[in-house]
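Q: I have 893 residues here and want to know how they pack in 3D. Can you give me a structure?
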Amino acid sequence: MLERLVYRFEEGRASMRDLLGGKGASLAEMTYVGLPVPPGFTLTTEVCRLYNANGKVLPDGIPEAIESEMRVLEEKTGKRFGAADNPLLVSVRSGAPVSMPGMMDTILNLGLHDGNVDGFARLTGDRRFALDCYRRLIQMFGNVVMGVPHDAFEQVLARARSEQGVASDAELSAASLERVVAEYKAVVEREARQPFPQDPREQLMRAVRAVFDSWENERAKVYRRVHKIPEELGTAVNVQAMVFGNMGDDSGTGVMFTRDPSTGEKVLYGEYLPNAQGEDVVAGIRTPLPIGRLEREAPAIYAELQRIADLLERHYRDMQDLEFTVEHGKVFMLQARAGKRSAAAAVRIAVDMVKEGLIDRETALLRVDAQQLIQLLHPSVDPSYTGGILATGLAAAPGAATGEVVFSADEAERLGKQGRKVILVRTETTPDDIHGIVEAQGVLTSHGGMTSHAAVVARGMGKPAVVGCEAIEIHAQQGYFRVHGREIRAGEVITIDGTSGRVFPGAVPLTTPGLSGEVQELLGWADEVRRLGVRANADTPLDAQRSRELGAEGVGLCRTEHMFMAPERLPVVQQMITAQSREERQAALDRLLPMQQHDFYEIFKAMDGLPVIVRLLDPPLHEFLPAEEVLAEEIARMKAEGAEPEAVARKERMLASTRSLREFNPMLGFRGCRLGIVYPEINEMQARAIFQAQAQLLREGFHPVVEVMIPLVGLQGEMRAMDDLVRRVARQVMEEQGMELDFHVGTMIEVPRACLIADELAEIAEFFSFGTNDLTQTTFGYSRDDAEGKFLREYLEQKLLPEDPFVSIDERGVGELVRIGIERGRSRRPDLEIGICGEQGGDPATIDFCHRVGMDYVSCSPFRIPIARLAAAQAELRERDAAKAAERAEVNQ
């Protein structure tokens, strides 16, 4: 049992990531390839799972195993843990199978105590260094293990700097640090109501338990929820002999990427802090130096880092994020993991590595997170903007964002959930700010560097970030920041540009970029691989044109009701709804006909040669009328002001119509094909507009490909009645125009009954398009608006639902109905064209499902088309890989 729960670094490999966690597997692999890694051992993720299952108690035998491994470490280092004269110090670090930067805890310098700090000072010949290590241990242990607030320690440090008259912690003298240590111990005893432990073995065991506990801290839970990381993975714990970056000017610590994580450029990118320990860089407490400075100031160290970076990138065949410490000029590696990167960097790195011969095209396609591509269409500051700037910081995460200034993560979360756009402004962010970063449009910090917590987390989420903007003085308690003599208060609007590092007052004009050459190249490879077609949900000619530019192969959903909402059309639509006779309604429809025809003409023209599916009117008619209370108040006001009787009468007719159309559950009421059956003249007008636009374009030499979709069908009779209506109008137009028109009629599958009678519908319908928004509502019995506002978030937090079913398809329920619908539809019509047109059509997990069940295409909003193209290719590649694995398994049997 214990052999599989505890591994020395030399016993593991990178392939054991699920067991050793990312950090443990990385340390093992770097040890294996011969890099300088301080020795240590890993308690596996299985220990974490057992620890949590046992009510936060370490499994039997683990404390003894830790003791045994510590004796091995003592033999390897020639030092003794807790000894007075030659003490072994260790770090305890987390490491989950999936990278969660900064979300869990680390404790350094374990093994120091009052009885050996003097011996450690004599051993190193540097009392200041020994005291610095001890104060760091008390601070980390006190915060992580004993729950002492971080600020309580920072106040002591700030006072010490002020009393000595120095700017940084590194400048504090030994005498100052001695006082800091004494005050730190007093802070611990006051805040935790117990003294800082002097027994090194107690320190170690409590630290191990605390790091396992950090898997369940709130920030880690939020991060897992945002990044869809399974709760059951657990974290490993790594115990490692310490090396010291705070031993003087020839020592230091740093974080670097083997390529630029924002742009993908092949250049060492990162930061280095001389005379410091690793947490100083990641926490953003001090603003570090660019890694490039080392090339001038310490060329031997820089050359060694370049050698290691090249070796690890070739070994892993991916861009690496590396943590290192330099002790008296010698480089030690503490971590190597696949680096978090922006979408632009991910694409460039994948394409460049294909050209460099490190990976093949298929690997490149699987290497880029499809969901991340939406970042490439994030706005940026309009290059023509010439207004003033407030300040410039480090460009940490690309994109631009505008929002109200807020100074706390809680406030960012509160306002963000109300739909307000906010910029989170902090001195530096900590992992506890994750919930605020999720809701904010972007992040601005005055301290920290390109590898600080704010930078790494924002890049991973696709949020713009400007960090290390030291010109701004933040007074969070007073609710303002000052920059160059100007005060910006909470609630004021600013704009940040994470691509250039600039901060602007107010809202500045933003532009949306196109797709770069590397993106086009990658998506071209995807198009060669994928089987699924990709269409767009487009309701305007502009949407259609933009979709085509982004690679859409047609329009899978054109919603005609959106065209009715234009200000110049709405009064005509309302006249049609409030009409007292069929003749009056027809007069309004005759006015709408040329408007609709022009809409379809422009959309068909933009998509010339590609299919366009036009959905006939779907929503309830009351959606086009003002609210009943608003109308009643307006009528009362008009009467009081002596308005024209005819104007009042028109409003009263509208109010009567609103009341007559009021429904208890409008989403299940008088809408979709039911409207067309009761008021056929509405759909007749729409069909005529469609076919007259098609005929006009054919005369002009274009090639419109027209498909007409009947919404909300649940009966074969409904499908037949509406199919007859559309085809009758088409014949009339063909006779009038003297030409043949080619078109298809199909249906939107939105209710469970349609799935169950799909064979009957397919006798008439020539295509199916699954409208998964309504199908999800009718399958779950949820009203989406009510669910999202009242209980869905709680269901997700309590894990009653694994995902929001309106974002990613519920395969077990909704997905099973889709499977039934496809199977039964194609049993009657084998060549039945089938797609999906709900919002889920742009979700990678849903696209994978659509591929597996044999759909022909997905349709999504224009800006999600690149995501869909890549996700469809990835679905095909995963299917191929699964088939190859099955073949290998069959051969091995």
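Q: Anything worth noting?
A: The chain has a mean pLDDT of 91. The longest helix spans residues 865-892.
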